[in-house]
Structures are given as structure tokens and as C-alpha cells.
């Protein structure tokens, strides 16, 4: 991924990002760090094609995606992206297992076909709850790991994570960071927003905003 001269304003004349550029290489784990309010999460949403820059360009595999229609951006996200939101963003009406397998539906796959990998991921990240339980019946740390399972389910080319260890104990944080490193090693571009010096130190690249 690449950002070229990106400007983003929530309010006219009040830019959050100004002429911001960076390259996020495939096969690398990149940390976005810096004080609160510097636009780290906003940048992650821009890279995830959920926001459009006010000006500048976002490129995926060398191709500009800034001018794509909403439908084309949604299709590209479904085919190539995984996203871990800071608040997990789980569907409270669905089971833990259905939340994870939801990512497969966006690619036109069946839930049943995705179940074995989903269960493997839940086991790998030690989400020790029955898969039929609802998100409202799990802890914040478990919800964050469920969201990571969902993001990893389809082996995305680009994985974006907003504070993926924010609600986790040190041991589980190490497990998550190792998984992010392993996914980057497959050739994916993995980008994480973090306030944790330990997580930043484990990344290949650190970009401070």
C-alpha cells in the first residue's frame, strides 16, 4: 500500500492529515504511533478505503483506488482486506462463530466451508467461550480476539488493526503480535495503530504521526 500527498479534513479548513505520504511494503508489519489526536485511526480508515481523502492518493498494488466508486471500494475490501476495529465492532445479534465466518460471506463463500478455519483461529487465540455465545456475553479482550479471527479468516492481502492489543494482557498480546508477524511473513501488508512501545518494537517499521 502507499499514500501519496494525502490530505483529509473532517471540517473545511481543519485538516487532520496534510500532504501525508508513506509506503507500506508487502511482507512487512508497520506500526503507526504518536500522541492521540494525530490522525492515526483516521489514516487507517483511509487506507482501509472506508474514508476518501480530501486530496492526494491511496494506492493498492501500485494502482490508485481513490477514484473508485463506493461499490468498487467495497468489493476490493471484501476481496483483499481485513480490518480489526478498536472497539471490535462485532454484531451483537449473531454468535461468536457467525461473527468470525461473516468475512467469508463477503467473498461469496459459504459459512459452513469457513467454519473449520474459524474454529481453528478461535482456538489459536484462546477465545475460551462456546462458539454459540453472543458477543455481549464475552469480555472486551475476548471480543478483540474474535475480531482478529474474523480479520484473518480469509488471509487478507492487507490487514489493518486499530489497537489490536489494547484490551489484552501481556501474554495474549504477545500471541497476537506473533500472529501479525506471521501474517506479514506470508507477503501481506500489515499495519497497526498502537500506543504500546512493545508492539511498536516488534514491528518491522514504525511511522510516527
UniProtKB/TrEMBL annotation:
<dbReference type="GO" id="GO:0022857">
    <property type="term" value="F:transmembrane transporter activity"/>
</dbReference>
<dbReference type="InterPro" id="IPR027417">
    <property type="entry name" value="P-loop_NTPase"/>
</dbReference>
<feature type="domain" description="ABC transporter">
    <location>
        <begin position="1"/>
        <end position="209"/>
    </location>
</feature>
<dbReference type="InterPro" id="IPR017871">
    <property type="entry name" value="ABC_transporter-like_CS"/>
</dbReference>
<dbReference type="GO" id="GO:0016887">
    <property type="term" value="F:ATP hydrolysis activity"/>
</dbReference>
<dbReference type="InterPro" id="IPR003439">
    <property type="entry name" value="ABC_transporter-like_ATP-bd"/>
</dbReference>
<dbReference type="InterPro" id="IPR015854">
    <property type="entry name" value="ABC_transpr_LolD-like"/>
</dbReference>
<comment type="similarity">
    <text>Belongs to the ABC transporter superfamily.</text>
</comment>
<dbReference type="GO" id="GO:0005886">
    <property type="term" value="C:plasma membrane"/>
</dbReference>
<keyword id="KW-0067">ATP-binding</keyword>
<keyword id="KW-0547">Nucleotide-binding</keyword>
<protein>
    <submittedName>
        <fullName>ATP-binding cassette domain-containing protein</fullName>
    </submittedName>
</protein>
<dbReference type="InterPro" id="IPR003593">
    <property type="entry name" value="AAA+_ATPase"/>
</dbReference>
<dbReference type="GO" id="GO:0005524">
    <property type="term" value="F:ATP binding"/>
</dbReference>
<dbReference type="Pfam" id="PF00005">
    <property type="entry name" value="ABC_tran"/>
</dbReference>
